[in-house]
Amino acid sequence: MTSIMSDVIAGRIELLDPLARGATGSLWRAIDRRYGAICAAKVMRQRDGADVLRFVREQTVGTAHGLGAHPHLLPPYTWVAEDDTVVLVMPLVHGGTLSGAVADHGPLAPALVAHLLRQLLDALAAMHDASWVHRDVKPANLLLALTGERGPHLLLADFGIALHESDVRLTATGLVHGTPGYMAPEVLEGHACDASQDVWAAAACALEALAPLPRGERPTARELPSRLVPALAGSSDPAAPALEQVLSAMLAPDPRARPSAAAARDALPGPTGPPEQWALTAGGERFEVFDQVEPLEAGSPGHGAPEVPLDGPAQQAGPNAPSPSLHARITARSTAAGAGPSAPTASVRQVSTEHIAHRPTRVDPAARQSAGAGPALTDATRPGRRSGGIALALLAVSAICLIAALALLVIALRGGEDSDAASAPGAGPCQADACVTAAEGPAR
User: 98-165+176-278: what fold?
Assistant: First the structure.
């Protein structure tokens, strides 16, 4: 059992207990108070612009082209922020990662690897159709749903360095994105990324499940394809020949020679028979996915609460079904306030802000009187008329001030000319009412 000390972020996400920690943040079990349901919360610190960009990418994938509803994708369904902390919120997956499963079970049978690879390629095909490249496909980012003895269900997660084809490409000398051992050779050589690098990385994941290497040992991108034939040599699994052929194409050194994710998925054989016949390890033992998350203690926050479904809170039923979003609630309130009692309750129509800026609101005097809002406005009492009169008065005052300033300027210029004439050598007798000489002072 897990003891809980909770903390609430932005009044909505109540952190319960940490589940994992990585380079960009930590993963917590949490309660989404809006739904009253258990979820997973990825807590990130906004240390620099790169962290913020990573957060934006993860959240954007979840709202793009319905990717959040794909059965093998697990992007965040919402986010909250408080001070310098950002929290990405997603369903909690109990089965751990493919990396952990291989560490526990050892090498997997080709039929099981083909099944998992089909699911991964299906997720990538959806991303690529939406013009996204994941760029960090690896076993640690492949989560397993809690299926027990049934066939495993894989979900692709962590979209922090995903790139859309419309994104600005910022490059730096010697900088590459990805995880060693799962980066295609052209990525290491500094070439532009595209969907083919995800296909290569998916094949590398499959090869790791077939023949896992000791922790920390990774072949180079050029050496990896040479491990394929030994990994499947001598296998009696009916899926082995087709799997070897597809993996060989996916690991082609030339990215243009690799199949698309959808083509590779369709070329893989599907499972035949019940899971006990193909969901096996290489040694013939059953591959089972059990709960990797400890249960909450009785009486602790969140104990007995439902969980956000894997396809997001939109599918949640019962008393914890999602209410309208904050934006939807504010829009509904503002629409109701502006509509008045006689306004129809039809769907809201969007209005261009250009019309709002250039078309003044017109008030029907009869309607105002019938509604008890006071007498109708006359031309003399309309706010628009009064503001127009004030503007004219201000314009007149400004004109008077300008004329006065010009007069003062003319007087000053004329005074300067008289002074120059009086001080010039050989000047005639003083013509002014009073003038000053060097020795006598004023003379009348």
Answer: Transferase(Phosphotransferase); domain 1 (1.10.510)
